[in-house]
Specification:
The chain is α/β, with parallel strands linked by helices. It has 3 domains: about 70 residues, Winged helix-like DNA-binding domain superfamily/Winged helix DNA-binding domain (Arc Repressor Mutant, subunit A); about 120 residues, Nucleotidyltransferase, domain 5 (2-Layer Sandwich); about 160 residues, ATPase, nucleotide binding domain (Nucleotidyltransferase, domain 5), CATH 3.30.420.40. It has 14 helices and 12 strands. The strands form 3 sheets. A 5-stranded mixed sheet has the order 5-4-3-6-7. A 5-stranded mixed sheet has the order 10-9-8-11-12, sandwiched between helices. It has a two-stranded antiparallel sheet with strand order 1-2. α2 crosses α3 and α6 crosses α14. The two termini are about 20 Å apart. The structure holds zinc ion.
Protein backbone atom coordinates (compact mmCIF):
# COMPACT_ATOMS: atom_id res chain seq x y z
CA UNK A 1 0.00 0.00 0.00
CA UNK A 2 1.44 3.37 -0.91
CA UNK A 3 1.58 6.36 1.40
CA UNK A 4 -1.03 9.00 0.89
CA UNK A 5 1.35 11.73 1.95
CA UNK A 6 3.79 12.98 -0.67
CA UNK A 7 7.48 12.67 0.18
CA UNK A 8 7.67 16.46 0.52
CA UNK A 9 5.45 16.41 3.62
CA UNK A 10 7.58 16.24 6.78
CA UNK A 11 6.52 13.47 9.17
CA UNK A 12 4.77 14.74 12.29
CA UNK A 13 3.48 17.90 10.57
CA UNK A 14 -0.19 18.86 10.62
CA UNK A 15 -0.50 17.93 6.94
CA UNK A 16 1.08 14.54 7.46
CA UNK A 17 -1.23 13.84 10.41
CA UNK A 18 -4.28 14.91 8.39
CA UNK A 19 -3.19 12.66 5.50
CA UNK A 20 -2.62 9.71 7.84
CA UNK A 21 -6.07 10.18 9.40
CA UNK A 22 -7.68 10.48 5.97
CA UNK A 23 -5.96 7.24 4.97
CA UNK A 24 -7.36 5.51 8.06
CA UNK A 25 -10.87 6.59 7.17
CA UNK A 26 -10.48 5.52 3.52
CA UNK A 27 -9.01 2.14 4.47
CA UNK A 28 -11.73 1.47 7.04
CA UNK A 29 -14.56 2.08 4.56
CA UNK A 30 -12.70 0.04 1.94
CA UNK A 31 -12.31 -2.87 4.39
CA UNK A 32 -15.77 -2.80 5.98
CA UNK A 33 -18.03 -1.27 3.31
CA UNK A 34 -20.51 1.56 3.90
CA UNK A 35 -20.52 2.86 7.50
CA UNK A 36 -22.07 5.63 9.56
CA UNK A 37 -19.78 8.39 10.84
CA UNK A 38 -20.18 6.99 14.37
CA UNK A 39 -19.02 3.55 13.16
CA UNK A 40 -16.04 5.10 11.35
CA UNK A 41 -15.13 6.98 14.52
CA UNK A 42 -15.24 3.79 16.62
CA UNK A 43 -13.31 1.70 14.11
CA UNK A 44 -10.57 4.28 13.47
CA UNK A 45 -10.43 5.51 17.10
CA UNK A 46 -10.58 9.07 15.69
CA UNK A 47 -12.67 11.77 17.38
CA UNK A 48 -16.16 12.24 15.88
CA UNK A 49 -15.28 15.85 14.95
CA UNK A 50 -12.13 14.69 13.10
CA UNK A 51 -14.12 12.02 11.25
CA UNK A 52 -16.80 14.55 10.36
CA UNK A 53 -14.26 16.96 8.91
CA UNK A 54 -12.44 14.23 6.93
CA UNK A 55 -15.71 12.80 5.60
CA UNK A 56 -16.75 16.25 4.39
CA UNK A 57 -13.39 16.77 2.69
CA UNK A 58 -13.73 13.42 0.94
CA UNK A 59 -17.30 14.19 -0.13
CA UNK A 60 -16.13 17.56 -1.52
CA UNK A 61 -13.28 15.76 -3.33
CA UNK A 62 -15.83 13.49 -5.03
CA UNK A 63 -14.58 10.28 -3.40
CA UNK A 64 -17.25 9.69 -0.76
CA UNK A 65 -21.01 10.03 -0.91
CA UNK A 66 -23.54 10.04 1.93
CA UNK A 67 -26.70 8.02 1.48
CA UNK A 68 -29.66 7.68 3.80
CA UNK A 69 -30.17 4.24 5.30
CA UNK A 70 -33.80 5.14 5.95
CA UNK A 71 -33.12 5.93 9.62
CA UNK A 72 -32.68 9.68 9.31
CA UNK A 73 -29.61 11.89 9.15
CA UNK A 74 -27.78 10.28 12.11
CA UNK A 75 -27.93 6.97 10.33
CA UNK A 76 -26.53 8.26 7.02
CA UNK A 77 -24.15 5.76 5.49
CA UNK A 78 -20.84 6.97 4.12
CA UNK A 79 -19.44 5.06 1.15
CA UNK A 80 -17.37 5.49 -1.97
CA UNK A 81 -18.92 7.31 -4.91
CA UNK A 82 -19.33 5.03 -7.94
CA UNK A 83 -16.87 7.18 -9.91
CA UNK A 84 -14.15 6.62 -7.25
CA UNK A 85 -13.19 3.37 -8.96
CA UNK A 86 -13.92 -0.31 -9.48
CA UNK A 87 -12.08 -3.58 -9.01
CA UNK A 88 -12.22 -6.92 -10.83
CA UNK A 89 -12.40 -10.44 -9.38
CA UNK A 90 -11.39 -13.39 -11.58
CA UNK A 91 -11.80 -17.03 -10.55
CA UNK A 92 -10.19 -19.56 -12.88
CA UNK A 93 -11.03 -23.18 -12.06
CA UNK A 94 -10.34 -26.50 -13.76
CA UNK A 95 -13.55 -26.20 -15.75
CA UNK A 96 -14.79 -22.62 -15.39
CA UNK A 97 -13.87 -18.97 -15.29
CA UNK A 98 -15.89 -16.31 -13.45
CA UNK A 99 -15.31 -12.57 -13.85
CA UNK A 100 -16.89 -10.01 -11.50
CA UNK A 101 -16.81 -6.21 -11.36
CA UNK A 102 -17.24 -4.63 -7.91
CA UNK A 103 -17.30 -1.10 -6.54
CA UNK A 104 -15.18 0.09 -3.63
CA UNK A 105 -18.12 -0.46 -1.22
CA UNK A 106 -17.69 -4.24 -1.52
CA UNK A 107 -20.65 -4.69 -3.82
CA UNK A 108 -20.43 -6.96 -6.85
CA UNK A 109 -22.17 -5.01 -9.62
CA UNK A 110 -22.01 -7.62 -12.37
CA UNK A 111 -20.51 -11.04 -12.92
CA UNK A 112 -20.45 -13.79 -15.51
CA UNK A 113 -19.38 -17.44 -15.43
CA UNK A 114 -18.20 -19.49 -18.42
CA UNK A 115 -17.66 -23.24 -18.48
CA UNK A 116 -14.27 -24.23 -19.93
CA UNK A 117 -13.41 -27.21 -22.11
CA UNK A 118 -11.08 -29.93 -20.77
CA UNK A 119 -8.00 -28.74 -22.61
CA UNK A 120 -8.25 -25.01 -22.03
CA UNK A 121 -5.07 -23.01 -22.44
CA UNK A 122 -3.69 -20.06 -20.51
CA UNK A 123 -3.71 -17.56 -23.39
CA UNK A 124 -7.27 -18.46 -24.39
CA UNK A 125 -8.43 -18.26 -20.77
CA UNK A 126 -7.02 -14.76 -20.41
CA UNK A 127 -8.53 -13.68 -23.72
CA UNK A 128 -11.91 -14.91 -22.49
CA UNK A 129 -11.41 -12.99 -19.23
CA UNK A 130 -10.60 -9.82 -21.20
CA UNK A 131 -13.65 -10.17 -23.48
CA UNK A 132 -15.95 -10.96 -20.54
CA UNK A 133 -14.65 -7.93 -18.65
CA UNK A 134 -15.27 -5.69 -21.68
CA UNK A 135 -18.85 -7.00 -21.94
CA UNK A 136 -19.55 -6.46 -18.22
CA UNK A 137 -18.16 -2.90 -18.37
CA UNK A 138 -20.09 -2.07 -21.54
CA UNK A 139 -23.37 -3.42 -20.11
CA UNK A 140 -22.94 -1.28 -17.00
CA UNK A 141 -21.62 1.79 -18.80
CA UNK A 142 -18.47 1.68 -16.63
CA UNK A 143 -15.21 3.03 -18.05
CA UNK A 144 -12.17 0.76 -18.17
CA UNK A 145 -10.09 3.71 -16.95
CA UNK A 146 -11.90 3.50 -13.60
CA UNK A 147 -10.53 -0.01 -12.86
CA UNK A 148 -7.96 0.08 -10.05
CA UNK A 149 -6.87 -3.58 -9.66
CA UNK A 150 -7.80 -7.20 -10.29
CA UNK A 151 -7.59 -10.26 -8.04
CA UNK A 152 -7.13 -13.62 -9.78
CA UNK A 153 -7.50 -17.03 -8.14
CA UNK A 154 -6.25 -20.37 -9.42
CA UNK A 155 -6.51 -24.00 -8.26
CA UNK A 156 -2.74 -24.23 -7.77
CA UNK A 157 -0.20 -23.16 -5.14
CA UNK A 158 0.97 -19.57 -5.50
CA UNK A 159 4.16 -18.16 -3.95
CA UNK A 160 4.44 -15.03 -1.82
CA UNK A 161 5.16 -12.90 -4.92
CA UNK A 162 1.95 -14.13 -6.54
CA UNK A 163 3.58 -16.53 -9.00
CA UNK A 164 2.60 -20.15 -9.52
CA UNK A 165 4.81 -22.47 -7.46
CA UNK A 166 4.09 -25.46 -9.65
CA UNK A 167 1.26 -26.05 -12.03
CA UNK A 168 2.63 -29.16 -13.72
CA UNK A 169 0.13 -31.83 -12.79
CA UNK A 170 -2.52 -29.46 -11.51
CA UNK A 171 -2.97 -26.86 -14.21
CA UNK A 172 -0.70 -28.06 -17.05
CA UNK A 173 -1.66 -25.32 -19.51
CA UNK A 174 -0.50 -22.65 -17.03
CA UNK A 175 2.88 -24.25 -16.31
CA UNK A 176 5.92 -21.99 -16.26
CA UNK A 177 3.92 -18.80 -16.73
CA UNK A 178 4.33 -15.71 -14.55
CA UNK A 179 0.59 -15.31 -14.09
CA UNK A 180 0.70 -11.98 -12.28
CA UNK A 181 2.91 -10.35 -14.90
CA UNK A 182 1.14 -11.90 -17.90
CA UNK A 183 -2.40 -11.22 -16.67
CA UNK A 184 -1.41 -7.68 -15.67
CA UNK A 185 -0.01 -7.01 -19.15
CA UNK A 186 -3.04 -8.41 -20.96
CA UNK A 187 -5.62 -6.69 -18.75
CA UNK A 188 -3.66 -3.46 -18.35
CA UNK A 189 -4.18 -3.57 -14.57
CA UNK A 190 -2.23 -4.43 -11.43
CA UNK A 191 -3.15 -8.08 -10.74
CA UNK A 192 -2.88 -9.97 -7.43
CA UNK A 193 -2.77 -13.78 -7.76
CA UNK A 194 -3.87 -16.19 -5.05
CA UNK A 195 -4.60 -19.88 -4.58
CA UNK A 196 -8.35 -20.61 -4.68
CA UNK A 197 -8.61 -22.11 -1.18
CA UNK A 198 -6.95 -18.98 0.24
CA UNK A 199 -9.29 -16.80 -1.80
CA UNK A 200 -12.28 -18.82 -0.53
CA UNK A 201 -11.08 -18.21 3.04
CA UNK A 202 -10.82 -14.47 2.36
CA UNK A 203 -14.25 -14.40 0.71
CA UNK A 204 -16.05 -16.29 3.50
CA UNK A 205 -14.17 -14.30 6.15
CA UNK A 206 -15.09 -10.94 4.61
CA UNK A 207 -18.66 -11.55 3.42
CA UNK A 208 -19.77 -15.08 4.36
CA UNK A 209 -19.91 -17.58 7.23
CA UNK A 210 -16.60 -16.35 8.69
CA UNK A 211 -17.51 -12.70 9.29
CA UNK A 212 -15.92 -11.59 12.54
CA UNK A 213 -13.97 -14.86 13.08
CA UNK A 214 -10.39 -14.44 14.37
CA UNK A 215 -9.25 -17.98 13.58
CA UNK A 216 -10.88 -20.09 10.90
CA UNK A 217 -10.14 -22.68 8.24
CA UNK A 218 -11.89 -22.79 4.88
CA UNK A 219 -12.01 -26.20 3.23
CA UNK A 220 -12.20 -26.28 -0.54
CA UNK A 221 -13.66 -29.52 -1.89
CA UNK A 222 -13.43 -29.90 -5.65
CA UNK A 223 -11.12 -31.36 -8.30
CA UNK A 224 -8.47 -30.56 -5.72
CA UNK A 225 -8.80 -30.36 -1.94
CA UNK A 226 -7.18 -27.58 0.05
CA UNK A 227 -7.54 -25.34 3.06
CA UNK A 228 -7.25 -21.57 3.45
CA UNK A 229 -6.31 -20.43 6.95
CA UNK A 230 -7.22 -17.17 8.66
CA UNK A 231 -5.11 -16.83 11.80
CA UNK A 232 -5.46 -13.86 14.14
CA UNK A 233 -7.67 -12.20 11.56
CA UNK A 234 -5.26 -12.46 8.60
CA UNK A 235 -4.64 -14.95 5.81
CA UNK A 236 -1.78 -17.30 6.78
CA UNK A 237 0.29 -18.32 3.76
CA UNK A 238 3.32 -19.98 5.38
CA UNK A 239 7.02 -19.59 4.57
CA UNK A 240 6.63 -20.13 0.82
CA UNK A 241 2.89 -19.83 0.24
CA UNK A 242 1.94 -23.50 0.45
CA UNK A 243 0.25 -23.51 3.88
CA UNK A 244 -3.04 -25.40 4.00
CA UNK A 245 -2.28 -28.15 1.46
CA UNK A 246 -4.59 -30.41 3.44
CA UNK A 247 -5.45 -32.55 0.40
CA UNK A 248 -1.90 -33.87 0.32
CA UNK A 249 -1.74 -35.12 3.89
CA UNK A 250 -1.19 -38.87 3.95
CA UNK A 251 -4.10 -41.18 4.68
CA UNK A 252 -2.43 -44.42 3.51
CA UNK A 253 1.19 -44.43 2.41
CA UNK A 254 0.63 -47.56 0.35
CA UNK A 255 -2.44 -46.05 -1.30
CA UNK A 256 -2.95 -44.82 -4.87
CA UNK A 257 -0.40 -42.46 -6.41
CA UNK A 258 -1.57 -38.84 -6.18
CA UNK A 259 -1.06 -36.15 -8.84
CA UNK A 260 1.45 -34.54 -6.42
CA UNK A 261 3.68 -37.64 -6.65
CA UNK A 262 2.99 -38.99 -3.15
CA UNK A 263 0.82 -42.00 -2.37
CA UNK A 264 -2.46 -42.24 -0.53
CA UNK A 265 -3.06 -38.50 -0.10
CA UNK A 266 -6.44 -37.42 1.30
CA UNK A 267 -7.24 -36.03 -2.15
CA UNK A 268 -7.01 -39.50 -3.73
CA UNK A 269 -10.11 -40.34 -1.63
CA UNK A 270 -12.16 -37.16 -1.49
CA UNK A 271 -11.57 -35.13 -4.68
CA UNK A 272 -14.51 -34.78 -7.09
CA UNK A 273 -13.04 -37.27 -9.58
CA UNK A 274 -12.40 -39.88 -6.90
CA UNK A 275 -15.82 -39.78 -5.26
CA UNK A 276 -17.69 -39.93 -8.58
CA UNK A 277 -15.45 -42.83 -9.64
CA UNK A 278 -16.74 -44.83 -6.65
CA UNK A 279 -20.21 -44.62 -8.19
CA UNK A 280 -19.24 -45.22 -11.83
CA UNK A 281 -20.37 -48.86 -11.87
CA UNK A 282 -23.76 -48.17 -10.31
CA UNK A 283 -24.57 -44.61 -11.46
CA UNK A 284 -22.64 -44.25 -14.72
CA UNK A 285 -19.27 -42.76 -15.62
CA UNK A 286 -20.75 -39.32 -16.41
CA UNK A 287 -22.01 -38.65 -12.88
CA UNK A 288 -20.98 -35.16 -11.68
CA UNK A 289 -20.75 -33.91 -8.10
CA UNK A 290 -23.93 -31.77 -8.42
CA UNK A 291 -25.75 -34.91 -9.76
CA UNK A 292 -24.41 -36.95 -6.86
CA UNK A 293 -25.47 -34.35 -4.27
CA UNK A 294 -28.94 -34.00 -5.81
CA UNK A 295 -29.41 -37.79 -5.84
CA UNK A 296 -28.24 -38.11 -2.21
CA UNK A 297 -30.59 -35.33 -1.07
CA UNK A 298 -33.36 -37.14 -2.98
CA UNK A 299 -32.77 -40.34 -0.97
CA UNK A 300 -30.28 -42.30 -3.11
CA UNK A 301 -28.54 -44.55 -0.57
CA UNK A 302 -25.33 -45.16 -2.57
CA UNK A 303 -24.75 -41.44 -3.13
CA UNK A 304 -25.54 -40.62 0.51
CA UNK A 305 -23.13 -43.35 1.63
CA UNK A 306 -20.29 -41.90 -0.48
CA UNK A 307 -20.92 -38.40 0.89
CA UNK A 308 -21.00 -39.70 4.48
CA UNK A 309 -17.74 -41.62 4.00
CA UNK A 310 -16.17 -38.49 2.49
CA UNK A 311 -17.24 -36.52 5.57
CA UNK A 312 -15.62 -39.10 7.86
CA UNK A 313 -12.34 -39.10 5.91
CA UNK A 314 -12.26 -35.32 5.93
CA UNK A 315 -13.05 -35.42 9.66
CA UNK A 316 -9.73 -37.09 10.51
CA UNK A 317 -7.78 -34.47 8.54
CA UNK A 318 -9.83 -31.61 10.01
CA UNK A 319 -9.32 -32.97 13.56
CA UNK A 320 -5.54 -32.98 12.97
CA UNK A 321 -5.75 -29.45 11.59
CA UNK A 322 -7.81 -28.29 14.59
CA UNK A 323 -5.35 -29.87 17.02
CA UNK A 324 -2.62 -27.81 15.31
CA UNK A 325 -4.21 -24.38 14.83
CA UNK A 326 -7.27 -24.42 17.17
CA UNK A 327 -9.74 -22.47 14.99
CA UNK A 328 -13.17 -21.36 16.22
CA UNK A 329 -14.75 -22.11 12.84
CA UNK A 330 -14.31 -24.48 9.91
CA UNK A 331 -16.16 -23.46 6.75
CA UNK A 332 -16.69 -26.22 4.19
CA UNK A 333 -16.88 -24.97 0.60
CA UNK A 334 -17.04 -26.30 -2.93
CA UNK A 335 -19.81 -28.15 -4.79
CA UNK A 336 -19.95 -31.02 -2.30
CA UNK A 337 -20.81 -28.63 0.55
CA UNK A 338 -24.32 -28.36 -0.91
CA UNK A 339 -24.93 -31.81 0.58
CA UNK A 340 -25.23 -30.00 3.94
CA UNK A 341 -25.71 -32.30 6.95
CA UNK A 342 -25.16 -35.48 4.89
CA UNK A 343 -21.53 -34.34 4.73
CA UNK A 344 -21.20 -32.18 7.84
CA UNK A 345 -22.76 -34.48 10.47
CA UNK A 346 -20.22 -37.35 9.98
CA UNK A 347 -17.43 -34.78 9.64
CA UNK A 348 -18.37 -33.19 13.00
CA UNK A 349 -18.68 -36.63 14.59
CA UNK A 350 -15.11 -37.63 13.66
CA UNK A 351 -13.70 -34.22 14.62
CA UNK A 352 -15.29 -34.45 18.05
CA UNK A 353 -13.80 -37.93 18.52
CA UNK A 354 -10.26 -37.11 17.34
CA UNK A 355 -9.96 -33.43 18.20
CA UNK A 356 -8.53 -32.34 21.56
CA UNK A 357 -11.65 -31.78 23.65
CA UNK A 358 -10.79 -28.26 24.83
CA UNK A 359 -9.97 -27.26 21.26
CA UNK A 360 -13.05 -28.56 19.47
CA UNK A 361 -15.72 -28.34 22.19
CA UNK A 362 -17.00 -24.99 20.89
CA UNK A 363 -15.81 -25.43 17.30
CA UNK A 364 -18.40 -24.61 14.63
CA UNK A 365 -18.30 -26.55 11.35
CA UNK A 366 -20.55 -24.95 8.73
CA UNK A 367 -21.17 -25.00 5.00
CA UNK A 368 -19.85 -22.00 3.04
CA UNK A 369 -22.48 -19.27 2.93
CA UNK A 370 -21.24 -17.94 -0.41
CA UNK A 371 -21.25 -21.44 -1.94
CA UNK A 372 -19.16 -21.69 -5.09
CA UNK A 373 -19.08 -17.86 -5.24
CA UNK A 374 -16.59 -17.78 -2.34
CA UNK A 375 -13.57 -17.83 -4.67
CA UNK A 376 -14.63 -14.96 -6.92
CA UNK A 377 -15.65 -12.94 -3.84
CA UNK A 378 -12.19 -13.67 -2.41
CA UNK A 379 -10.66 -12.40 -5.67
CA UNK A 380 -12.64 -9.16 -5.28
CA UNK A 381 -11.48 -8.85 -1.64
CA UNK A 382 -7.86 -9.28 -2.78
CA UNK A 383 -8.27 -6.65 -5.46
CA UNK A 384 -9.84 -4.25 -2.92
CA UNK A 385 -6.97 -4.86 -0.49
CA UNK A 386 -4.39 -4.06 -3.16
CA UNK A 387 -6.14 -1.28 -5.08
CA UNK A 388 -4.33 2.02 -4.81
CA UNK A 389 -7.03 4.42 -3.69
CA UNK A 390 -7.09 7.98 -4.89
CA UNK A 391 -6.83 10.41 -1.95
CA UNK A 392 -8.68 13.63 -1.31
CA UNK A 393 -5.61 15.51 -2.61
CA UNK A 394 -5.29 13.42 -5.75
CA UNK A 395 -8.96 13.94 -6.43
CA UNK A 396 -8.33 17.61 -7.06
CA UNK A 397 -8.69 19.35 -3.73
ZN1 LIG B 1 -1.05 -35.58 -3.09
Amino acid sequence: MSESAGSSVPPGSQTSLRNANQRRVLDTVRRDGRLTQAQISRRTALAPSTVSSIVHELIDAGLFVAASDGAGRRGQLIGFRGSAGHVVGIDVGHRHVTVAVADLNQEILAQRRHELPDEHRFAEDLELVGRTLDTLLRDRGTARSGLLAAGLTLPAPVDLEGRLISAGAILPAWSGIDVREEAGRRLGLPVVVENDANAGALGEHAWGAGRGARNMAYLKLGHGVGAGLILDGSLFRGATGSAGELGHTTVDETGRVCRCGNRGCLETYVSSGNITRLLADTHGADLTVPDLVAAALGGDLGCARVIGDTGRLLGTAVANLCNTINPELVVVGGELSRAGELLLAPLRDVVSRHGVHGGVRDLRIEAARLGIEAHVVGAVVLALQHAELPTGDAAGR
